[in-house]
Amino acid sequence: DAGITQSPRHKVTETGTPVTLRCHQTENHRYMYWYRQDPGHGLRLIHYSYGVKDTDKGEVSDGYSVSRSKTEDFLLTLESATSSQTSVYFCAISESTLIGSPLHFGNGTRLTVT
Amino acid sequence: QQQVKQSPQSLIVQKGGISIINCAYENTAFDYFPWYQQFPGKGPALLIAIRPDVSEKKEGRFTISFNKSAKQFSLHIMDSQPGDSATYFCAASQTGGSYIPTFGRGTSLIVHP
């Protein structure tokens, strides 16, 4: 596995509470991504980063924010968790945007919002 | 708008059979088509990929067939094994443009022994 660590691996939280998920990489890759995976919806991009302090929105960014203060860390924050944000969250990294540069995924964080 | 449509959603195959998963795309600017394989409790991992300048790519028991005019591509798993049981995602991306892959919704493959 590429050097990607997601924490926590599992979390249960209550509606309305803030939640932060962490992605840590040891590959020194420039590009980092947050996806959510839901049955019937596949993988949907939440936010991505193309460098330290450089981030942009994906297709399902509402209710989420991100920060990247160091190359190795990409944080995903749910400002006020809702039940619709119950999902499995995957962090991914890539070395470049050149064709053939694959995404390497972490093993996910399962988040349950009650 | 779903840019990459994947079917079937689930697939059950007997050991030794052929598994076929299909994808169709809308954006003719896409020029890279990877497939990812995901085992339970793990993140997806790149399995095989193709560019539209070839119609087929084979790696072991896995083959991608590509039809540029129909804007379709498919994954064939020959001699399917129980260890192939996983979720498979097709994806598409565009060099210099939408470089972040757009994923299909996934196919859950079960291979019975």
Task: Give the key terms.
heterodimer; A: 114 residues; mainly beta; seven-stranded mixed β-sheet; four-stranded antiparallel β-sheet; 11 strands; 57% strand; B: 113 residues; six-stranded mixed β-sheet; five-stranded antiparallel β-sheet
Q: How does this structure look, described?
A:
The complex is a heterodimer of chains A (114) and B (113). With 114 residues, chain A is mostly beta strands. Helix content of chain A is 0%, strand content 57%. In chain A, the strands form two sheets. In chain A, strands 2, 4, 5, 6, 9, 10 and 11 form a seven-stranded mixed β-sheet that branches. Chain A has a four-stranded antiparallel β-sheet with strand order 1-3-8-7, with no helix packed on it. The mean pLDDT of chain A is 94. Chain B has 113 residues and is mainly β. Chain B is built from no helices and eleven strands. Chain B has strands at 4-7, 10-14, 19-25, 33-38, 45-50, 56-59, 62-67, 72-77, 86-92, 102-103, 107-112. In chain B, the strands form two sheets. In chain B, strands 2, 4, 5, 9, 10 and 11 form a six-stranded mixed β-sheet that branches. A five-stranded antiparallel β-sheet of chain B has the order 1-3-8-7-6, with no helix packed on it. The A-B interface holds A 4, 33, 40-45, 48, 58, 90, 92, 97-100, 102-108 and B 6, 9, 31-32, 34, 36, 41-46, 49, 51, 89, 93, 95-96, 99-101, 103-106.
